[in-house]
Design brief:
Helices cover about 45% and strands about 5% of the residues. By secondary structure, it is mostly helical.
Amino acid sequence: MKHISNNAKRKTGMTLLELTVVILVLLSLIAVLFIGARAWKKGSDRAACILNLRNVQQAVRSYSNLNGLNPNTPAPGLRSQIIGFGKYMENEPVCPAGAGLYTASAPDVIPDLGVLYLTCPNITQPNSTDHVPPQHGDW
């Protein structure tokens, strides 16, 4: 009679415990990936929003310079003069975070230097001041 050892009888494969550990590790890695993607999206939305504000500010400054308008000068229909087909900006800027269209506190007045013409609607939400450019005094 032939003697068979326990090692020879053991089938190859993973035990239930090993399989559970592998699944938990994979789920942890996926969770870290989603957290990182969410942070990346928030940062890219903030950067795109600030670039939109900067582009509008440059359009307002270009319009005022080319038309000889000083800050605090009335400019009827200013928004329609700078935004539209063939104008300083082709399309109406929209906050990439999904907050909607930008708003102007004085829509028909050229703003002072360092004062933004448009503001992001996202700053009206609690703890959302990150869509305000940190240094815009020379815009």
